[in-house]
Each structure stands twice: as structure tokens, then as C-alpha cells.
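Attaching the record inline, Q. Sequence:
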Amino acid sequence: MTEDPKFGSDHTDRTAEDLKRLEEVIGSSVDLSDESKFDGLKEYLKNNVMVPSSTNLTGWETSLTDPAKHRDTSFRYVIHAVEPETSIGSTVQSIFILQEMQRDPSIRWNKIDLLQTPEKIVEKAVISTSLIDSEHRVTWRAGGYILRVPLENILKTCREDCGTQFHLVEDIVKVLYQERDTNGIADPDTLLRYSSVSGSSLSYNEVVVTGTGRTGKQVEISGIFVKVFPNGDFVNEVLAGRLSTIAYQKSLPFLRIVEPYKPYQDENPDLFEGGFGVDKGGKRYVFHIERAAYFILEYGGKKTRTMCPRERAEALGLVRQYLSQTPDEKLQALVAEAEKVSDETLQQRVAAEMQWKERDGSWGLGRYQFKSIQPVFERWGGRDKILIK
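Structure, as predicted:
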């Protein structure tokens, strides 16, 4: 196995494992005596997300955990991850779909903000969910809803993102039901067996469901989850704040699930356009000289924070130690530039970052336990307005 120390990417050669899975899917053996065929197989498996269908599907209704009895070492949930409507990802998706609607008037898009009206989840024709457990914790976003899903509402199961273009077909649910009736779906155990384990990959499986099934059965929200880092910090404080409020309002279990990540490996300093970086102790210290921006990446790059004076001194000390054995004039010049920003300026940046987090992210967090008030977050024009009912 080789790992990319900058992004925690996994480049494991899984040909043998994938070959076994491929044979299970297609129901026959695969002859790869010709080594030239290996690359083709790997490319096929990279783009193929099928898992074997199952005849016994009762596990979808019997093997899932009650969120009220959550244990971090043993759980299994169908979850629907969400993000605020004001997020970049949500905005880009909205623009894309609106452009598609202009080109094709037959496209229907029932846009529902589940952070405002979670009860309308039953109106969603297609809901992208994932099956997670203690060994498969990767999710699309850092929080969302735990669902109770009737078996008939499950349309498709994939070991990775299915890539369902839900807005491009007028009656996508009918199409997906036809696919299920023809191809079947996997049971929970099989899907998890084919899914990437949290420690080996950061990809997630997908279970496509519909809010209301063909006989009228509906999904239910049975709990709320948010992702946290090992130190307890929320991966997305703004999202966690909103979801904690909904959990209190709806009297739902509020679960913290530890986010999987790949720590940075200790590496020598490296140069990039405009600056340099060094990896040590599972963190990456980044000095962007052109922007005079010095920050630290933690948890495999999933958390970014401003570097304080002490941390700058420690990181530059590591670089100087490297330079004493491996001279590099360009890197030496960049180190000298990195020292020019005063300690006072760095400390002011750290303080400003903390103030922003307190205002924009963590205000609503404790309200799930502190039930004497009930905050409601409304976002407009980039500012949070907090209304106390």
C-alpha cells in the first residue's frame, strides 16, 4: 500500500480482491492469465458499482439499530446526509439543474430544504442514502438524518455513489422500480461486504430510496447524526448547530459519529507554487508566502485552522533541521519570508478565527442540552439571525 501524504489517498492494488467480487457478480470465473488485461479489469471495476442481488432482504427491516440505543462500537443505520442550502455544493447543484430545466422543460425538480422542513422527506421522489456501521463510517456530508426505510422503498444499492441523474427522467421512480424488479437489490450484509472499510478508503456506498413507496409506505426520520473528529470537535459546526436544534424540536436522538480520516505521514518539506509545506505528527503545516497565509491541515485535510506563533516556530524549526542536512536556496528564502509576519499578527488572526466560529458556527450547539430556550437559525444574505421562541 502507498499513501499520498498530502491528501491521504489510498492507492492500494486491490486487483485480487476485486477479481473475486467480479466473479461473484457475473456468476463465472474470469481468466486473467494475460497480464495485459489487468489494467482493463481495474478500470472496469473502478466504474462498476454493482453488488450481487439477494433473495432474502429482511435485513433491511430487522438488522438496523435503534438510534435511541446507539453504541459507537456497534451500530448500523441508513442515513441521508444533508448540507445547508447556502453551501457552495448546494448552490452549484441548483444552478446546474436550473440550466438543465431551461434546456429540457420536461424535467421536474421538487426542491425541498430538509433543514427547514424535515417532515417533507416523504415527498422526495428520490433520496440518496448510505448504509453505515461501525466499520463503514464514510458519509457524503458531515450530518443528516437517520431513516427507517420500508423494504419496498429501496430502489437501488451500489457499493459506491450510483450516479443517479434523478432530475433527467420525468418518472425516475418508475424507472428505478423497473430496474429493481429486473436486477434486484443487495441485502445489508452483502452491501457492507462490498463497501470500502473506513480505514482503507474514503468512498461511501449508496442506497437510493423513495420517500413514499408504490403501495404508500413512507420513510421516517428516527434520529439525527453529526460527524465529529476524535477530539470531539464537530466536522461542520454550522450544520451541527442546525441539526441539534431540529433534534430538540422533534425530540429525536442526536448522535455523534466519529469521522474516519487518513492522517498525514511524516514527510520532508515540499515546495508548491507560492509556498511550502511540511508534514509532522499527523498534521500538515502550510505556508502560503504569496498570500501571507499560514495554516494547519488536520485529520487528513478535513479540518483547517490558522497557525499560531508557537506552531509556526515548531514547523519552521523542522524545516531548518531539514535544510541543515539538505541545503535548498529557494526553500531557505521562503522560510525567511515566513518569519516576517509578526507573532502579534498571527495571534490576531487566530483570535479573529475563533470569533467567527463562535458567531457563525457553535452558537446553537449547546441548545440540545440546554432546553430552556429554543433557537431557530435562519440564513439570509450570508448572516445568521437567531430567533428565540
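Residues 52-258 form one domain. The chain has ten helices and 16 strands.

More tomorrow.
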